[in-house]
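Batch manifest, entry 17 of 40.
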Amino acid sequence: MTKKAYLVAFTLLGLSTIMSSTLTAADYDATKAKLEAAMSSDIRTEADTARDGNRLPVETLEFFGFRDDMKVVELVPGGGWYTKLLAPVLAEKGEFYVAYGAGRAAKALEGKAGFEKLKVTAEEASFSRPDGQRFFSVSNTDLGVKNADIIFTFRNYHNFTDETRAAINDAAFKALKKGGTYALVDHTRRHMQKLDNENGRRFDPVLAIKEIEASGFEFVDYSDLHYRADDELQYEVGRKTVTGNTDRWTLKFRKP
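Output type: C-alpha cells
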C-alpha cells in the first residue's frame, strides 16, 4: 500500500469511527431522556438520589448498551435502586423482569405509575445460608426468560457461593439471546487476595471474568466509571472511610 493510499484508508477509518460514535450517542438520547425523567420521579427517596453522583446510572447504562425497547432482567434487585430507574424507561416499548430475592422491590413498587409492566420471574428460586456459612446458595436458578437483550446485576456477585455463582452465570447465558449482554458491577477485591474479615463483600474481577467465561460468555469490555483511586481495597465496604466511595469493577460480557 502506498503512503497516500494508507493515509486515505486511515482517514476513512477515522471518519467511520467518529460517525459510529455519533450514531451510538444519538441512539441513546431517547433512552437517556427517559432515564433522567425517572431519576427525577417522586418515587425515589432522598437516599436514592444521594447515590446518583456515585453510581452514575446514565453513564453506566450507556456503557452497557441499554435502550428503552429492550427485554431486560435485573438480578437481585434488593431495595430497588436500579429497578426504580429501569422499569419506567422500559414501560412503553420494552420488557422488564426482576429475579432472585425480588419480592421486596416488587411489593414496594406494585401499583405505582410506570411500574405496571414490572414482572417477577424465577419465583421458585430460594435463598439459603446455613449456620456458620458466609455466602448464600440459591436453588432453582432458571430464570424462565428467553431471548433477553441484557441481564444486569449490581453489587451482588460477591454474595454467593462458588457453586451458586456458576449456576447464576449459566442461567444468565441460557436466558439471553445470541449477542445479548451480561452486565455486572461489584466492589473490587485485590487480585488473588484470600478471604478475610474485611473483604467478604468484595470480589476479584479477574476471577469474575474467568468464572463468567467458563459459562460460555465472551468478555467484551470494562469501564473505569467506578474506579476510585483512594479506595485502598483494604477495608470492608461499609466502613466510614470507604462506604459510598468503593472501587468497583464494571464488566460487560456477550453471549456469542
